[in-house]
Amino acid sequence: MDDTPLHVKQLQLAIWLAKPPEERLRHTLEDNDALFAFWDEIKKNNQQNKSGDQVNKPGKL
Q: Per-10-residue mean pLDDT for the chain, 61 residues long?
């Protein structure tokens, strides 16, 4: 994304790299687990809605 100024990105990187590697790994794994749980929930909801109108049809709001 281009809406974050460069100096803020540099600060975020410095903060991230200041953390120990095991904390960065743990955080990454937790984020991945949360992301996969989110997508599994979306898939489950879409399968339940197949018999009727889907709420999130591509290209429609």
A: 89 96 96 96 87 58 51
Q: What is the 3-state secondary structure (H, E, C) of 27-56?
A: HHHHHHHHHHHHHHHHHHHHHHCCCCCCCC
Nearest CA among 39, 57, 40 for reference residue 49: 57
Q: Do residues 23 and 30 lie in contact, with contact meaning Cβ atoms separated by under 8 Å?
A: no
The torsion of the CA quartet 24, 26, 31, 34, rounded to 10 degrees, works out to -170
Instruction: Give the three-class secondary structure for 21.
Output: helix
